[in-house]
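Cross-posted from the bioinformatics board.
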Amino acid sequence: MSDIEAIQAQLLGDIEAAADANAVEALRVAALGKTGSITALLKTLGGMSPEERQAQGPAIHGLREAVTAALAARKAVLDTAALDVKLAAEAIDMTLPADAAPRGSVHPVSQVMDELAEIFADMGFAVATGPEIEDDWRNFTALNIPETHPARAMHDTFYFPPQMNDTEGRAMLLRTHTSPVQIRTMMSEEPPIRIIAPGRVYRSDSDATHTPMFHQVEGLVIDRGIHMGHLKWTLETFLKAYFEREDIVLRLRPSYFPFTEPSAEVDVGYKQEKGRRIVGGNGDDDGHAWMELLGSGMVNRRVIANCGLDPDEWQGFAFGVGVDRLAMLKYGMDDLRAFFDGDLRWLSHYGFGALSVPTLSGGVSA
Amino acid sequence: MKITLDWLREHLEGDYSVAEVVATLNRIGHEVEGVENPAEKLAGFRVAKVLTAEKHPQADKLQVLTVDTGDGDAPLTVVCGAPNARAGLIGVLGLPGAVVPANGMELKVAAVRGVESNGMMCSTRELELGDDHDGIIELPEDAPVGTPFADYSGANDPVIDISITPNRQDCMGVRGIARDLAAAGLGALKPLDVPTITGEGAPATEIRTDDPEGCPAFFGRTIGGVTNGTAPEWMRRRLEAVGQRSISALVDISNYVMFDLGRPSHIYDRAKLTGALVARRANAGETVTALNGKNYSLADTMTVIADNSGVHDIAGIMGGEHSGCSETTTDVLIEVAYFTPERIALTGQALSLTSDARSRFERGVDPAFLDDATAIVTAHVLAICGGTPSAVTRAGTPPADVKTVDYDPALSATLGGIAIAPERQQEILAALGFSVIEQGGRWQVAVPSWRRDVDGAPDLVEEVTRITGFDAIASVPLPRADGVAKPTATAEQLTERRLRRAAAAAGFDEAVTWSFISEAEAAPFGGGVWSLANPISEDLKVMRPSLLPGLLAAAQRNQNRGAGSIRLFEIGRRYLADAEHPTLALLMAGDKSARGWQAGKAAPFDAFDAKAAALSLLEAAGAPADRLQVMEAVTSGNIWHPGQSATLRLGPKAVLAEFGALHPALTRAFDVDGPVMAVQIFLDAFPAKRASGPARAAFAPPALQPVRRDFAFLAATSLTAADLVRAIRGADKAAIVDARLFDRFAGQGVPEGQVSLAVEVELQPAEKSFTDAELKAIADKVVAAAAKVGATLRG
C-alpha cells in the first residue's frame, strides 16, 4: 500500500466515524484546509519532475476527490438525522380541532325558485317580476274581477289607505297573487310570451297552515293555437322535472277563476308514507289520494283584450302554484311558519349549500 | 252549499249512489268538500219504551227505569235523572258502546249510586238534534220500539258539502246541482212542479218599486188567515241537515225554497206594516235593525224595502227584525224580487254583512223565475199554514233578455283541448238548458236565463268540456325552439343569484322575513311610507323601509335560543315612497370565531368584517370593485355607529352599499346582545354592464419582476388611509401599480395627534429594470405626493 492509499484509508475511516457536523468540519480543515494534509500533498506536485507528476498527480487528486465526496456524504447523513430529531420534536396531536369555516346556506324558497327557473328555461320560459305593492286595477279589474265580483271576497286583501292611491286614483294594495305580472307582461311585451313570475304575495290570513305572506309562481303562455292540451303537458313536464319522478299523475278538475276560461284545478296523486305526503302515482290507486296543487286555465279573452291584445289572434294559458308548498312537498318541511322565522337551526337543516346550484345537467334537486 | 241525497232525489230521477254523485260532482266542476251521514253518529241509539219508573233508593233526583229495547230480551235497568221520565214514555235509549254525539262520551254499563245502569235515555241536546235539555226525548206513542233511531228519525240521509264556485249561482240550490248531474249522465232531471194559484183580489198591501235600478222587479202577494206553527218534519229535517236551524213554518218555507231552488224570498208580517211596501233607495243615515239583531246605518246607494214607518229590509241581504214573522202572525206578504247584483255586492261589502240571500242575489238569481217562485212559495204556505192568497202584484220587470252566443264547435278542440263531436256538444248544451241554432257551421247558442255567467264562446267550451270530463284532455307538447335552451334570466336576476350564492359561500344563512314590520321597528329607519289600512296585527303593519329590522328580530330570536354566532342575510325589497328597491342585507352578531386552543378567546365581529363582506359580495356580483370609494354614511338617525360605518360608492351619488357596526341604541331596541355588524347592498344602484361579448382583453404578462419599496409617514390622525394611498398611487402612474397600507401606529415615538402610516408601494418596470437614479426619482415623487396630503416621511 502506497502512502497515499494509507492516508485515504485513514481519512475515510475518520470521516465515517465523525459524530456530528463539527467533527466533519474539523476533519475537512485537517485534510483540505490551508494547512491540511491533502493540501500539503497537492503543493508537492509543483516541485516534481513531469514524470513524477504524471505518476503521483492522479493519485493525489483522487485522494482529494474521495475525501471531498466522503465529507459531503457524511454531512448529508448527519443533517438528515438532525432534521428527523427536530421534526419528531414538532409533533402535534392532529386530532385537535381545526377552525371551522362558517357554513352558510340558501333558503329553500330561493332554491326552489332557482329550480323552477331552470326547468322552465328549458321550455323557453323567461322569469318576469312585478311590484308587490300593486294597484287594484292590475290585481283585480284587469284580471276580470270587477269591484262587485264575488271573487274579490275570495281574496283577503291587504289595502293601503286612500291617500296612497296612485296618480290615476287606483287603490293600492298588496298583491294577492302573482297574476298582475301577467297583465304587466302582456302590456309591455309582444307575443309570443312564455314567462314564469315567482314572488311574494299577501293575504290577510294567519293560522297553522296560512301565513299572511307567502310565495307563488305564475306561469303564462300567450301564442297562436295554444289550448288546454298544451297546459296539461306543460304542468306534467314541469312537475315531473321538479319532483324528478316519471310517475306524476295529474287530475284536472273544472273550476272557476275570473281570469281564465275554461278554468281547471289541478290535483296530483300522492301517497302517505311515514307521515309524509309523497307525490307520485295515480290518486285513484290503492293507498293513494289526490291533493289540490295548483289553479290554471285558458287566459280569459277579456283579460287579453284588457291588455291591448287581440283575443282572436292570441290565446294561451296561465297557472299559479305556491312555492312554499312545492318546497314542503319535495323537501319534507311540515311547518310553513318556520319558513319566515330565520331560525339558524332550521336554515342549516333545510337550507342548501352555496354550490348546490340547480342545473339540468347536474339535476335540479340539490 | 250542502245537499242531502234524499233531497237530490226530489229533483233527480235515477239509480245512483252517494259515491257516484260525489265522483260526478268533482268531475264536472263542483268540488265536494265532504260527505257526512248523520246516521253514523246515531249508531247504538234506538227507540225504546220505559216500562216502569221508580225513585232511586240513594238519590232524590234520580229514577230507576226498566226499559224495553224491543229485541225481546228482558227489560234493561237504566238510571235516569230526567224529570219527564215515566212509565209508558217512548224515547231514545243509548246502549253501552254508543258514543254520545254532543260530548263524545262512550256509554258503558256502570253503577250510578249503587244501581247498575245499562244505558242512557237521551235528550235532544245530547244527540245534537236541538237545544232542549230539560228532559229526555218523547216520541209519539206509535214509534216502533226497537228501531234504530237513525232510521226512525230519517237521519240516514248522507249530507254532501259542495264548494260552489262564485260563477254558478244556479247551483246554489239543489235543483241546479241536479240539472248539472243529469247533463253529466247521472239520472234524469224531473220536471219542476209549479202549482197554479189564482188569488183573490189585489194584495192587501200596495207593492211598488221606486228604485228600478236597484230593484227592477218586485213581485208579491198577501195571504190572510195563516197559522204560523212548526214546519213539517220532512222540511225541518232537510233544513237542519244542511245546517239551517228550523225557526217557524213561514221562515222555514222561505229558506227551504232558497236552498231547494236557489231562490231567496222574504215573508213579512203584515201586522207590522204601515201603508205601501216599497223598494226604494235608503235615505242617508237611515237605520234598520236586521234579523241578526244588529243595527245598520244605511247610505243612499243602498236599496231597501220600506213602508210608511221606515225600513223593513236591506234589500236582497237581510230582513228587518221588526217585521219578521212570529208565532202570532196571521197575515203575511210574500216578496219575490229581483235585485241588481252589483248593487247587492256593494251594499253587502259596505255593511260587512253576509247572508245566504246576499250570496245568491249578488251572483244574480234567475230573472225569469219570479212568477214560478212566487207560486211555489205560496203553495207551501197554503199547504202548511193555510190562508187565503191575493192575486200577485208584479211591480217592474226583471231584465229577462235572452243572451245569444256565437259559437264554433271546433273551439272545444282548439281552445279546450278535447275534440267533441258537434252532435254530442248539442246534447250537452241542451241538457244544461241551452238551445242551439246552426248557421253554416257556426252556432247561435241561446243562454238559459239562470246562466248569468255564460256570455262568450269560451264559456260554452267550458260547458262541453267539463261535462265531457277534463280527463279527456290529451297532453300536447309546447312547440320547442331549435337548439339549446337560451338563457332567460335578466341582468338583475343574475346579480341577485350571484349575491345569494356568494353570501351563502361566505358563511351566511339566508333568511326570509316578513315584508311588513311594526311601526316601532320601522321608526329608526325613518318609518314606513306604506302603512296598511287593515293590518293583520300591529306587528305586521308597515312595509319595511329596511331589511335590517327583520334580521335584527331574527337575530334576537336566535340569541334567545342560545345561538353563539349569528350570520344571516336576506335578499328582498325595501318599500319606499318612490318604488320597491331590491336589497341584500347581511347581519353579524355574537362571536366571529369561537374560543379555541390556538386563538384562545372568542373573537367578536368588527366593522372590517362588514367591510370585507361588502367588498367581496360586490365583487362577486360583478360591481367594479376597484373603482369603489369608501365614503361617509348617508343614513341619518341612530342606525349606524357614527364612527364605524361607511358607504361604498361609485362617484359621490351612486351608493352601492353601506356597512359597519350598528348603533348600540338600535341593537338595544331590538334586544340583541353585543356589537352587531351589518351590510346593506342596493341591487338597483349597480351600473348596467356594457355588453362586450365573451372575449377578454388581450393579456401580456410583464417580463420583469416588480420592485417593492416601503415608506413610513407621519400624518395627522385625520388623514384617511384612502386619501394617502390614492395620493401615492397618483405619484407616478406609469411605474406605480399598487400601494397598500400595511401598518398604522400611534403612541410611543409618534407625536400626539399624529399617526405613523406605512405603505408598501409596488413598482412595475416595463422593458428595462429600474436604475438606482430612476428608483430615487420615483421615491421622491411618492414623498412629494404624500406631503401634499399632509404626510411627511419618517426620518
